[in-house]
């Protein structure tokens, strides 16, 4: 594989899925880039749960990156299983995936996927322990990036792949994420097949959803045997800080969460009581639907930095598709970066707005006074 010199010098902020897909796909096309990541190493923190990769977005990104076979090796076909219940415990929908089913939306562990991407890049492509603080425009064009440790680096193209709280975004727009009236709490059951085989059989191999008025419980099987449990509520923005749940005291937190599901079928509170000491509050926020910005030479965004949306399965896929489209656009116009960025952003604004609108609509249905019926209709579609 031939590699060009760093002209233009491309700096990607953030070693998440979007940033790594971008670096890998650029490299496939002979274009070098450097990824700056604030974390100290690839193992500095957990990378979240499972992700279903869609054929037209996340899976396409892996194909364009030349990593389709490696993706298939870690994909969980059975993760496409679905069980949907109402809060009384009535099963409304059950979808079991045949062994020969196509990989339409297989689940994959985010950590495994990230490792595949990291392993596909030369060792020094990702510069760990470099937290982006701000960037200043250079007189000759491009930007000087300033890091938290006092060091700096110059680039011709700066790409913010740094997520919901992007520090690159203010170079382009003053938009910030807003709360959408939903709050979530993440818990989890480790090694569920051994520790709670009855609950393991109930949850099944994929996703388990229980929906009630203005709240839901979602359990998701992970490849390492852990089941992540997400409890979501239609509540005011400050609810996570005013509800009185003692997150730092797991036993008391589980008891408080169990009380919030009083009146639900007992198998749901059993899931909560079986969780370990992981109790993580997560407010749900999003950027304005249809966010755009004037074209700015030498800087752009992708993924959550550009179009943060509610977590219903589209965000990571859109980040990976953004990265792919940006890489292909840059490769097609290596001598006209301004035109390449304009072309990329025009298309990204449109698809990002559509995905954000769809995600907001799905979240509205999932956490609503109507409870499970709207969700059943959604899945049946």
UniProtKB/TrEMBL annotation:
<dbReference type="InterPro" id="IPR043683">
    <property type="entry name" value="TetX_monooxygenase"/>
</dbReference>
<feature type="domain" description="FAD-binding">
    <location>
        <begin position="299"/>
        <end position="356"/>
    </location>
</feature>
<keyword id="KW-0547">Nucleotide-binding</keyword>
<dbReference type="Pfam" id="PF01494">
    <property type="entry name" value="FAD_binding_3"/>
</dbReference>
<feature type="binding site">
    <location>
        <position position="110"/>
    </location>
    <ligand>
        <name>FAD</name>
    </ligand>
</feature>
<feature type="binding site">
    <location>
        <position position="304"/>
    </location>
    <ligand>
        <name>FAD</name>
    </ligand>
</feature>
<comment type="similarity">
    <text>Belongs to the aromatic-ring hydroxylase family. TetX subfamily.</text>
</comment>
<keyword id="KW-0521">NADP</keyword>
<dbReference type="InterPro" id="IPR002938">
    <property type="entry name" value="FAD-bd"/>
</dbReference>
<dbReference type="GO" id="GO:0004497">
    <property type="term" value="F:monooxygenase activity"/>
</dbReference>
<keyword id="KW-0274">FAD</keyword>
<keyword id="KW-0285">Flavoprotein</keyword>
<feature type="domain" description="FAD-binding">
    <location>
        <begin position="10"/>
        <end position="175"/>
    </location>
</feature>
<comment type="function">
    <text>An FAD-requiring monooxygenase active on some tetracycline antibiotic derivatives, which leads to their inactivation. Hydroxylates carbon 11a of tetracycline and some analogs.</text>
</comment>
<comment type="subunit">
    <text>Monomer.</text>
</comment>
<keyword id="KW-0560">Oxidoreductase</keyword>
<dbReference type="InterPro" id="IPR036188">
    <property type="entry name" value="FAD/NAD-bd_sf"/>
</dbReference>
<keyword id="KW-0963">Cytoplasm</keyword>
<feature type="binding site">
    <location>
        <position position="52"/>
    </location>
    <ligand>
        <name>FAD</name>
    </ligand>
</feature>
<feature type="binding site">
    <location>
        <position position="45"/>
    </location>
    <ligand>
        <name>NADPH</name>
    </ligand>
</feature>
<protein>
    <recommendedName>
        <fullName>Flavin-dependent monooxygenase</fullName>
        <ecNumber>1.14.13.-</ecNumber>
    </recommendedName>
</protein>
<keyword id="KW-0503">Monooxygenase</keyword>
